[in-house]
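Justification of resources, computational component.

The compute hours requested in this renewal are based largely on the per-chain cost of generating structure records like the one below. Each record pairs the submitted sequence with a full structure-token output. That output is archived, and it is also reused by downstream analysis tasks.
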Amino acid sequence: MASNAAPLGTLPSGIGIFTCLPDIFYLPELVFGGLVWILVASSLVVPANPQGWVMFVSVFCFVVTFLWMVLFACGAHHNKPGWAAADFVYHGIAAFFYLSASVALARVTIEMKDGSIFLNYQLDISAVVFSYVATLLYFVHTILSAIRWKSF
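The structure output for this chain reads:
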């Protein structure tokens, strides 16, 4: 039986990025990051500072993850180990950013529980849940990228 997974010491390109670990996480990262972006943008922004950080993280990670996915799909990495290291570093930073944004958003959501419009409260709860899911996806991608990088 043939396997669609790339060997650990190689970086996939083309459609192969959607069939092997850790690159299979690109699409879920984009979906959940986009949901966080949409939900925070559609809710009442009070207080502005933590919500602004969440918006920055979600937009930044969405754009960079999309560009990173396109670069991998185009084969710009030429299967060099430096790209595997950069993949590990980027996803580690994104996981840390999302964790900090998730905690800040959860704190703001807990504070607005009693004196807020119920719809905004529900939107923020959804954003917190999706933000933690995005954090988990980026963290798992980081671990699998580290394993791939060490196998080069």
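The longest helix spans residues 118-150. DSSP finds four helices and no strands in the chain.
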